[in-house]
Structure formats: structure tokens, C-alpha cells
Amino acid sequence: DTGVSQNPRHKITKRGQNVTFRCDPISEHNRLYWYRQTLGQGPEFLTYFQNEAQLEKSRLLSDRFSAERPKGSFSTLEIQRTEQGDSAMYLCASSLVWTGGYYEQYFGPGTRLTVT
Amino acid sequence: GQQVMQIPQYQHVQEGEDFTTYCNSSTTLSNIQWYKQRPGGHPVFLIQLVKSGEVKKQKRLTFQFGEAKKNSSLHITATQTTDVGTYFCAGPGRRSGGGADGLTFGKGTHLIIQP
């Protein structure tokens, strides 16, 4: 399977604990995005990388959230001191970028986080 | 900030009936994308519209981009049970240009089909 993969698929944690999610994009894609989706809502943009550079962060990304893409391949999203409001599906997407064009994003299956 | 609104939120149709969802943006969009998410699944890209007034068709699906590039619609002719899911429109974020930004999604239209 050469699509976007995410691990773990499910994570249950207690409030106050730290969690880390991993995303492996499609290998030739240089853009990687993180979104959060809650029940009945559309995905909400969190941040994105072009290669290893983090180019944009949403205001939703509080100080407790940090994302990295150290070698321009896989990415991690860490949430520190989790709160119940962090419970959501965390989606990763990847895409190509090329000058003057638009492109689609390919989403992974997501990591469902439940904070108890 | 930019807002993308979709109506209706839910749509119940009998199998074989047509379905339309509408998308409106608070700002002019450089492009608009449509995604479908099946129950329990992740968003899957359907199409991208770039030009003012553009119309694209994919079998029973017809997508339109408004002349002012602030609204769009998706029309499905003769729905089938495989069409069940949530249809999202999405536009690029605050930055203009080559679609390189994180997308702003609408809340989606949930299509429920009764056989």
C-alpha cells in the first residue's frame, strides 16, 4: 500500500498525559498537512510542512501542540498535557506542489484520540 | 478569517433521486476542492475547480464553480447506495496563489440514501 499511513490508529490516554502520533506520507510528496476532525465537522487545518520546513500554523495549534518533520519524510504530532477537548480524529494528508498549479491532498486513515 | 459554509447539513433521498449540495465562501477562492468521506473513513479527493464559471462532470456527478469564485455546487444524478457519505467543499487558506495552503473545509453535507 503506497498511500498515507498513520500510527497508531487509536489512542486512549488520561488527561494530562503526553501523546505522539506519526504520519508517513506518500513517498514522492513534499507537502504534509495535519488536520483535526471532530464528530459531525469538517477537518480543521492545524499545520503543514514543505519538506522539513513548517510553513504555517493554525491558531488552533496551541503551545501544547508541536509538529516535526525532521528529514522531510515522516512527521510526528505531539500533544502535551492532554485535555478532554483534544479528543478528536487527527488526520494527516500529503500532496505534491508545483509552480503555478493546484493539487489534491491525499488523506491517511487518521488517529483517533480519546482523552479520559 | 475565511469561512466556508455548506447547505444542507443533512439530505435524505430515495435511491434514484437527485442530490445537490451548495458551498459558499466568505472570500473569493483561487480554487475549490471537493472531497467525499464515507462513514468511518477518511476524506477522498473528488475534484478541483479553478476557473470562474467552470463546470466539470464525473459520470453522475456535476461540479460547478461560481462566476465570482465564491460559491460552488455538487449535483449527483440518480443517486445510488454507493453515494452515501459526507461531501465536503474546501478552499485554500488566507494565502493566495498556488493552492499550497492548508484547506478550510465546510462542515459537509451528509447524504443518506433510503433504498
Bin the helical content of chain B. under 10%
Please report which band the strand proportion of chain B falls in: under 5%, 5-15%, 15-25%, 25-35%, 35-45% or over 45%.
over 45%
Strand runs of chain A, count: 11
Mean pLDDT of chain A comes to 92
Quickly count the helices of chain A: 0
Indicate the low-confidence ranges of chain B by residue numbers.
95-100
Instruction: Outline the biggest β-sheet of chain B.
Output: 6 strands, mixed
The average pLDDT of chain B is 91
Shape of chain B: globular
**Most residues in contact: chain pair:** A-B, 31 and 26 residues
Return Rg of chain B in Å.
14 Å
What order do the helices and strands of chain A follow?
EEEEEEEEEEE
Total strands of chain B: the figure is 11
Helix content of chain A: under 10%
What does this 3D model show about the protein?
The complex is a heterodimer of chains A (116) and B (115). With 116 residues, chain A is mainly beta. The N and C termini of chain A lie far apart (33 Å). In chain A, strands 2, 4, 5, 6, 9, 10 and 11 form a seven-stranded mixed beta sheet that branches. Helix content of chain A is 0%, strand content 48%. The model of chain A has no long low-confidence stretch (mean pLDDT 92). In chain A, a hairpin with a 6-residue loop joins β7 and β8 (75-79). Chain B is an all-beta fold. Chain B is 0% helix and 52% strand. Chain B is built from no helices and eleven strands. Chain B has strands at 4-7, 10-14, 19-25, 32-37, 44-49, 55-58, 61-65, 71-76, 85-92, 103-105, 109-114. In chain B, the strands form two sheets. In chain B, strands 2, 4, 5, 9, 10 and 11 form a six-stranded mixed beta sheet that branches. In chain B, strands 1-3-8-7-6 form a five-stranded antiparallel beta sheet, with no helix packed on it. In chain B, a hairpin with a 2-residue loop joins β6 (55-58) and β7. Classes of the chains: A mainly beta (116), B mainly beta (115).
